[in-house]
Amino acid sequence: MQLMSTIQSAKTAPALLKLSADNWRFAVLVGLVVSALAVVTLPASGSFWVVGAISALVAAAFAVNAYRRRYYGGLLVAPAIAVLFVMNIFPLLWSLGLSFFAYQSNLQSIRFVGLNNYIKVLTDEVAAPGNWNALINTAMFAVCTVSAQMIVGFLLAMLFAKQFPLRKYLLILVLTPMMLSVVASGVFFTYYYDPTFGILSYVINSVAGGQFIVMDSKAGAVAGIVFADAWMWSPFVMLLVLAGLVSVPKYLYEAAAIDRVSAWRRFWSITFPYIRGLLMLALLFRTIEAFKLADLVIVLTKGGNDTMTISYHLIRIANEQNKTSEGAAISYIILFIVIVLTNLYLYVANPKNREA
Amino acid sequence: MTLTREINRIVMAAGLAASLVLGATFAFAGEVTLTMAVPDWPPTRIMKKFFDEQYKPKSGNTVKLQVDFIPWPDFYTRVNASLTSGERKYNFIVSDSQWLGAFVEGGYFRKINDLLNADPEFMKTFKDIHPNALNSYSTYPHKSENYYGFPQFPDVLVNFARKDIICHEAEQKNFMAKFNQKLPCTGEELDAMTWDDFKNVGEFFRRKKGEMLAGKPAEDDFYGIAFQAGKSYDFSSMQINGFIWQMGGDIWDETQAPTSKAEGVVNSPAAVKALEKYLSLIAYMPPLAKTGTMDIFKSDELFRQGKVAMSVNWIGLAEASLDPKTSRVSDNLVFGMMPGTKGADGKLVRWSNIGGQPFVLTTWTTDAQIKEAVEFVKWWLSSNIQHQFAAAGGQSAIKSVYSDPKYVTYRPWNRAWAPSLDWQKDVWHVPQFFELLTQQQDQYDLAITGRQDAKTTQDNIAKFQQRLLKEVGLIK
C-alpha cells in the first residue's frame, strides 16, 4: 500500500503555476510568454539568446521532472533527443518563426509582420507572379518526371525480375546513374543536348539532315530535364519494385499455371498486391524529391525557357536576394503542399484503413 | 624534495623570461594575415603569384596573403553566405562592382575615404584611376565621393576575331561582292565596325559542314558571330545595356533617385529598338544562343574551338584564346573594340557595360590588418606592378600606366583597352540589385528564346522596376 501511494504521489503532476524545479508545464508557459515578448521587443541577436536560454530552462525542467519521477529511460534517450532538437527541430521552428518577420539577411534588419509574407508571396503584384509560375512549373515537372520514372522503373523491374545472360552486369550498369552526382549528370546532359558539340544533335543532323536544337523551346527544355531526371532516378523505382517482385512466393505462380490463369490476371491477383505498397513508397519519395528539383534545372537551363522550379526560385529569393523570411514562407507553403499530397497518397494506398 | 622544488622554480623562471623575450620580439615584428575571397581565374592567380614572389612589406612585419580561390559560378553565393552568416572570415573581397550597394548598406564593406585622406601619395594614385572605372568600382552611392573599392582587375568587352577566316582573300572578295564593303580584317578595321557590320559578318559566315570556308571545306557547321545571351547571372544584361545606351536609350538612373523613373525610360522606344537590334543578331549566332544559355564561357569555348569568326567577350577570358593548349585558333587572332552604333554626326557611339572587379576591405578588419592592407593596395596599384600585371595578361585602370606607349605591346587586345574606357557605364549599385537583375534576366530570356517580343519585354521590366523601386523609396 505504501509503495502504491509513493508511486501515485510521484506520478501526480505539479500544479500548472507552481514554481518548482520540475514543473516543466510552468517552464513551457513562462518560456512561451517570455519568448514572444523577447521576439517582439528585442533586436534579433538579443531575442536569439533569450529564446536559447528559455529552451535550456524548459529542457532542465524536463530533466529534473524525469529524475524526480524516476523516468530513467527518458533521461537515457535525452541526449539523442537534445541533438535532434538542436539539429532538426530548432532550425525548423526558427525558420517557421522567421516566416512571420520581415528579415533581410544582408541588411540584418528584422520586424514582425505576421502573415504578411505568406500573403505577399501568394498575392503581391511584384512577388507573386514568379512564385505562382514556379509552382505551376514544379507541379508539371512532378507529374512528368514521376510518371516517367514510375513507368520506366516498373518496366525495368519486370525485366530484371527474370533471369537472362549478363543480368547481373546489366543491373549494375542500370543502377549506376542513381549513384552519380546530379551536377555530374547535368553537365553530361548539357553536352549531350548541345546543338554544336552534342551527340544527339549530331546523330539527328546526320540522319535527318536538318539542325536539331533540343532546348530551344519550353517543350524541348522540359523534355530534356525530364529525360535526364528519369535517367537518374528510374533505377531507384526499379530497385523498390524489384524487391517486391522477388518476394512473391513461387508456389502462387505454379498454382496459377495449373489453373491456367491468364498473364494479366496473374499480374493483378498475385504480383500487384506484393508490389503495391512499394510502388506507393516509390511514388511518395519521388514526388517529394520532384518538389525539390533545382540542381538539374540550374545546370541544364538555368531556369530558362520557362523551366523555373519553386526550389530554384527559392534559392534565388532566399540566397541571392537575401529575402530570408519570404523564402521561409515559400518553404512552408511547399511543405504544406507536400504534406497534403503525402496524405492523399496514403489515403489512396490504404483502402482497408478507409473502410475501417 | 627541496632540490627538486628549487630546480622547478629555476626552470619556471627561465621559461617565463624566455616567453617574455619572445613575446617582445613578436610584438616588434608581428605576423599579419590578410584573408581574401577571390574568383578563381588568371587575374587573381597572377596577383597571388606576384605577392608571393615580390611583395615585401615596408613595416617589417611578416604579411601573409591567404587567398580563397572560388569558382566563378559559386562566387557570389559563397561570398554572400560568408558575409550574411556573420563568420567575418575575409578582410579583403574581390567584389563585383554591382554588389557595393547591397553590402555597403549591410555594413560589411568599409569606407576608405579616411585611409585615402591620411595618405596623399595613395590619394594621388587613386585619383589617377580612369573616372569610369573609379565610379564603377569604388563609389556608393554611385558617382558620389564615398569610396569603397580599389580596382583589382578592370575589364571591358572587346571583339575577338580570326584572321585566317576574315582576312582570307576569297572571303574578302565574296564579302565585297555581297555587301559592297570591305570585310574587316585588321584591328583598326574591327574598331570601325557597327552592329550592322557585325550582323553582315554573321550572315556571311553561316556555313554548313563541307561548304567552302577560307579556301577549305568546313569541318563542321560554322557561324559568323557570337556574344553573351545567357540567362544566368548578368550575361544578357551586360550586352543588352550596351545596345540600349548606344541607341539613345537608358536604364533606370540611380544617381537621379528618387526623381528618375523606370517606366517611360526602361521601355522607351529607343530601348525597345535596341533590344530588337540585339535579338535580330541572335539568328546568326551558334544555335546554342537560341536556348538562352550562351553565357560568356560558352561563347568563349565556341570561339576557341574554331566554330565562330568573331566573338564579343571580356578581356579577362582572352588569355586562354592565345594559348595553343586551350585554343585551336591561337595563331590567328586579331582584336578590336566592341562594335558601336553610328550617331547623328556620323561618329561611332560606343557605350558599353563595364566589367571587372574592385577589391574591398571589410568592416571588421583590424587596424593592424588595415595598415598592411593599405600598403598592399599601394603596392598593387604602383606603376611597376600594374605594368607587370598588364604584361602578364591583366589590365590597369591607372592613367599613367595604360597611356604608356609600351602598354599596347603587352597583349594584342591592349590597343582596344584605353579607347574603350571612355565609353564604360555600369548597372545599378543599389541594394535591390539582385532583384532587379534576376527579373530582367528572366524577361530577356523569354525574348532570346523567342517567346516574347522586345516591347513586351521592356514593358514588363519597366513595370517591375517601377513597382519595386517605389516600394523601397528609390522612386517617388
Chains forming the largest contact: A-B, 31 and 42 residues
Helix content of chain A: over 70%
Q: Which structural class best describes the helix and strand composition of chain A? A: mainly alpha
Largest sheet of chain A: 2 strands, antiparallel
What oligomeric state is this? Answer: heterodimer
Query: Which strand-content bin applies to the residues of chain B?
Result: 15-25%
Backbone CA Rg of chain A: 27 Å
Strand order of the largest sheet of chain A: 1-2
| Poorly predicted ranges of chain B | 19-28
Number of strands of chain B: 17
Number of beta strands of chain A: 2
Order of helices and strands of chain A: HHHHEEHHHHHHHHHHHH
Strand % of chain A is: under 5%
Main β-sheet of chain B, in a few words? 5 strands, mixed
Describe the structure.
Helices cover 76% and strands 2% of the residues of chain A. The two termini of chain A are 43 Å apart. The longest helix of chain A has 33 residues. The model of chain A has no long low-confidence stretch (mean pLDDT 88). Chain A is flat, with a radius of gyration of 27 Å. Chain A is an all-alpha fold and 356 residues long. In chain A, strands 1-2 form a two-stranded antiparallel ribbon. Chain A is built from 16 helices and two strands. By secondary structure, chain B is α/β, with parallel strands linked by helices. A five-stranded mixed beta sheet of chain B has the order 2-1-3-16-4, sandwiched between helices. In chain B, a hairpin with a 2-residue loop joins strand 6 and strand 7. The longest helix of chain B is centred in the N-terminal third of the chain and has 27 residues. Chain B is globular and about 70 Å long. Chain B starts with a helix and ends in a 5-residue tail after the last helix. The relative contact order of chain B is 0.16. About 2% of the residues of chain B have low confidence. The chains are: A mainly alpha (356), B alpha/beta (476). Chains A and B meet through helix 14 of A and helix 3, helix 4, helix 20 and helix 21 of B.
